[in-house]
Write a structure and sequence with these properties.
With 149 residues, the protein is an all-alpha fold. The chain has seven helices and no strands. The chain has a single domain, classed as Up-down Bundle (Four Helix Bundle (Hemerythrin (Met), subunit A)), CATH 1.20.120.160. It is elongated and about 40 Å long.
Length: 149
């Protein structure tokens, strides 16, 4: 069959469609999602020893659990509860750091410090930064959880 395909191609034509395969296009889309989220998939895979199954599992667990942590952070900011903010932001920071999402990890850390130092007046702006980071990160996490990473 491959022989037949090569005979139908004009001499000098590429061996494959220059637009790439569906898998390559999917990977390009996924790569764009990872770049927008600030994720380096190679680094993330290295953290789990290259085990994509483990990475999917960790990601699925995180996707199930992080909304509750975000709810804790939001409630702490709304209540101006510095102790609660420090604890919730610290937990979130530790979990999200597994994915090498530096901007989101940094935003969670900023909220942790705000809670620790009791400077709650800057918490709402820091929360906006964290929420923005998660809006960018979420599609990349979904892609990993669905095996597209």
């Amino acid at each position: 069959m491959a022989e037949e395909d090569s005979r139908q191609r004009p001499r000098g034509a590429p061996d494959r469609d220059p637009r790439g395969s569906a898998g390559e296009q999917n990977m390009t889309t996924s790569s764009t999602i990872f770049e927008a989220a600030g994720l380096n998939l190679a680094v993330v895979l290295d953290r789990v020893g290259g085990d994509t199954g483990l990475l999917r599992e960790i990601t699925q667990i995180f996707l199930e659990e992080y909304p509750a942590l975000m709810g804790e952070v939001r409630a702490a900011v709304k209540e101006a509860n510095s102790t609660r903010l420090e604890r919730a932001a610290h937990s979130l920071k530790g979990s999200v750091s597994n994915f090498g999402a530096d901007s989101v990890t940094s935003a969670a850390y900023a909220l942790e410090v705000i809670g620790r130092t009791r400077q709650m007046e800057s918490a709402p702006d820091a929360l906006v930064r964290l929420e923005t980071g998660f809006r960018q990160l979420h599609p990349a996490l979904l892609a990993i959880a669905n095996g597209q990473g």
